[in-house]
Design goal:
The chain is mostly helical. The chain has one domain. The chain is 87% helix and 0% strand. It is built from 2 helices and no strands. It is elongated, with a radius of gyration of 17 Å. The N terminus is likely disordered.
């Protein structure tokens, strides 16, 4: 979390992080498809799965944060 940064900056950073994770997953998938050796292909596929899982966690965190903010706004209103 960036101390003192506006909420929009934090959201941009999370989005960039998620995009980076998804790009890394796509790169790992491409590496897997290009691999000649089975063990290299399997390693790349595991890497892809890990990057996709990290991207999903970022999205889950963002969704939860948005729900909590909406609930807090309802309570405050």
């Amino acid at each position: 979390m960036l101390v003192g940064a506006p909420d929009s900056s934090r959201k941009d950073i999370r989005l960039t992080t998620q995009q980076t994770y998804l790009a890394n997953a796509a790169s790992a998938r491409a590496d897997a498809e290009a691999a000649d050796l089975a063990n290299v292909r399997e390693r790349c596929l595991r890497s892809e799965a890990a990057w996709n899982a990290m991207a999903a966690r970022v999205q889950q965190s963002e969704d939860l944060r948005a729900r909590r903010l909406a609930e807090a706004a309802k309570t405050a209103a």
